[in-house]
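Milestone M4 deliverable, item 7.
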Amino acid sequence: MSKITFSTNEIKILQKNPNVQRVSHLAITYTDDFKNRFMNEYLAGKLPRQIFVENGFDVDLLGIKRIEQTAYRWNKAYEKKGLIGLTDSRKIASGMPMKRELSQSEIIERQEAKIKLLEGQVELLKKLETTERRLLNASENLDPSRVFQLIYETIEQHQFKHMTKYFCDLLGVSRSGYYSYLKASDSREATEQLDLEAKEMILKAFNHRGYKKGSRSIKMILENDYNHLCSRKKIQRIMRKFGMVCPHRRPNPCY
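Output delivered:
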């Protein structure tokens, strides 16, 4: 808890903010709606300070440390229990009775808020479940680099934040390998360019004299006709990568 205390005048200022449920000299309680909105924007990439400012809070009044601690606490609760973990349940958990009974309108309002909270969590789970199935189906029989690319494209497409570890664990690859893959993007582009150049040469030999050839014939044609040295292993890799398939002659059933 932050050591900053609120004066009577500051309490009055904070009480005017619709995102504040209650406030005392020592503590402030935010509405569940604001917590939900905060997590949505935080997961979308906004900074805690920016979210508080956009929702009418004075950073100097609250203190940046209090904001950071609040963001950390809400994020931990969200990771553990989802949106339900953000609900203020201290009175229920402590067994402290309310000083007054809720009115009918307050009960309805709370139930509606709870329903909206649960609906939001269900939609999020549906989205994640669909993404999980797509990732698992698409990652079958892929080498690690392709899996890393799949994770990257999924995160970018759906704007998932803080989900890298989850997706890596889901697909059985390491986070360190994923981040190394991202850092090596420049070298991959250079390798891709070299492969494209090699593809052009191999394709010429592949279609030489009007019929398709295998890696052995391609290697000999490159060396003899084009004065180009290339290992057979590289030729096979380029052929697999770009889908160059040499037809195999069917065996004669008469023999």
